Amino acid sequence: MSRTEPYTLTIRSDARVRKERHRDLKAALDALERVAREFAEGADARPAGGTFIRRMDPVQQVVARIELSGPNRLRGGVDVRGDGSSEAFTGRMRRALVEPQGRESIYDALRGALSA
C-alpha cells in the first residue's frame, strides 16, 4: 500500500473486484458514498432459490459490498441489497452495524463512526 494513498476502497459486485486508492479519509468516504449510491439506484435483484434451497428475497441478497480500509486498522463499509437498501458497518471479521441517528443517512453515520 502506498504511503501517499493509505486508504483503499474495495468494490465487490457479482464476481468482479476493483480497488481505488485515496489520499485522505474524506475523499475515500465521498467515493464510497458515490459508488454505493450508484449500485443502490441500479439494484434490481429477483428472488432466488426456492426449489431445493432456501428462497432469498432481494432484501436478503447483497448485490455490492464497498469496503474501506486504512491506517490504524480502520475498517468499514456498506452492503447494498438487491432491493436498493443499504447497511453500513464497521470492522471486518467482527462487523458491527452502524445505525443512523435521527435523520442522518447511513453514510453520515459511517463517517461519524470511522472519524471517531
Largest sheet: 6 strands, antiparallel
Name the helicity range: 10-25%
Through-space gap between termini: 23 Å
Which stretches are poorly predicted, pLDDT < 50 over at least 5 residues? none
Tell me, rounded to a whole number, the average pLDDT: 90
Strand portion: 25-35%
Shape: globular
- State the total count of DSSP E strands: 6
What does this 3D model show about the protein?
With 116 residues, this protein is of the alpha+beta class. The chain is built from two helices and six strands. Strands 2-1-3-4-5-6 form a six-stranded antiparallel β-sheet. A hairpin with a 4-residue loop joins strand 4 and strand 5. The protein is globular.
Draw up the topology in text:
Elements: E1 7-13, E2 16-22, H1 25-42, E3 62-70, E4 74-81, E5 86-90, E6 96-98, H2 106-115
Antiparallel strand pairs: 1-2, 1-3, 3-4, 4-5, 5-6
Keywords:
globular, alpha+beta, 6 strands
Short summary:
This protein has helices spanning 25-42, 106-115, and strands at residues 7-13, 16-22, 62-70, 74-81, 86-90, 96-98. With 116 residues, the chain is of the alpha+beta class.
